[in-house]
Amino acid sequence: MTIDTLAVTALCHELQAFVGAKIQDSVIASPLSLALELYHQRQRRWLLLSAHPKLARLALHSQRIPRGVDQATPLLLLLRKYVEGGRVIAVEQPELERIISLSIAKPLEPRNPDEPVTELVIVKLIIEIMDQRSNIFLVDEHGTVIECVKRVTAQMSRRVALPQHPYTIPPSPTKPTPAPAMSRHCWSHWPTNPTSPRPSSAATGGCHRKWPAKRSFAATTTPPRVWHS
């Protein structure tokens, strides 16, 4: 099953409805997948993240996703430490990439139980839906990998995926973006008479606009929400 960029964009927009959701539980559904229980606006959903080489996906389920491993893995322990009890504060997608990042903020428990919570720890849960190269990363606020589903060494690939290494977005393929072709298609159906009115953005579906060239997590995102525990 192949998921293209447009499908990932649709998934990103769907998940943005859950910004502010509290993560109440996390499970390892299989050696290559995990699931988070989201609670938001009196709705409970399970978010499945899978890095399977043929069935990599990101999906919302209404029913509980069962645990797929008997023992707690290092990734599960880290999810309990950094993710459980936190809230989703942003959902992002780099431009034209099959990558979705969930920013999660969790109150940092004080050493003294009587002290109020004053600090938040922020991490990112990043899923790359890329067939054989699919992976899931837990990244700290400085961009350093805490843990990942698939560990990749320098002997295996030029792009290393290991704890304590910086997370980098995969190199962009040397392919033209669809924007110029979309623009030519839209204008080819418009009269060539110079006196004809210029089509509006609504008329052309916005495809005559300039395609942004910057690749970053700010491409498809919602602003972080301030919340109090």
Defining key terms:
5-stranded antiparallel sheet, 229 residues, 4 helices, alpha+beta, globular
Notes on the structure:
The chain is α+β, with helices and mostly antiparallel strands and 229 residues long. Helix content is 15%, strand content 28%. The chain has four helices and nine strands. The protein has helices at residues 5-15, 74-82, 179-188, 201-204, and strands at 22-30, 33-40, 43-50, 57-61, 87-92, 99-107, 120-128, 135-140, 145-148. It has a five-stranded antiparallel beta sheet, with helices on one face. It has a four-stranded antiparallel beta sheet with strand order 1-2-3-4, with helices on one face. Strand 3 and strand 4 (57-61) form a beta hairpin. The longest helix is centred in the N-terminal third of the chain and has 11 residues, at 5-15. It starts with a helix and ends in a 25-residue tail after the last helix. The relative contact order is 0.15.
